[in-house]
Write a structure and sequence with these properties.
- The chain folds into two domains: 3-39, no CATH class; 43-80, no CATH class.
- It has a three-stranded antiparallel sheet, with no helix packed on it.
- By secondary structure, the chain is an alpha+beta fold.
- Helix 1 crosses helix 2 (25-39).
- The protein has helices at residues 3-13, 25-39; strands at 48-52, 59-62, 72-76.
Length: 90
Amino acid sequence: MSRDDIICMAHQAGLFDDDQEPLPEYLEHFAALVAAAALEQPEQEPVAYRFQSPATEEWLLGLEPPVGSRWAIEPLYTNPPRREWQGLTD
């Protein structure tokens, strides 16, 4: 959500008049806070782990990752972690 989206919603909610220019300082500050909060997403915790046995190379599932650095470990999530939108390129 961008600053302009937030200000448009503030117009729609009637927080200030359309002909009021420049924007009130509190609204600029509020828009910046909301935009920053929208970018902050809590980091998801894995719900399980997929790991590959170094001896048999078989993939296993478990609720906790195995101890030892020789295992290939992949965390599994209910929803993939969100990535920031990069936009389209020409």
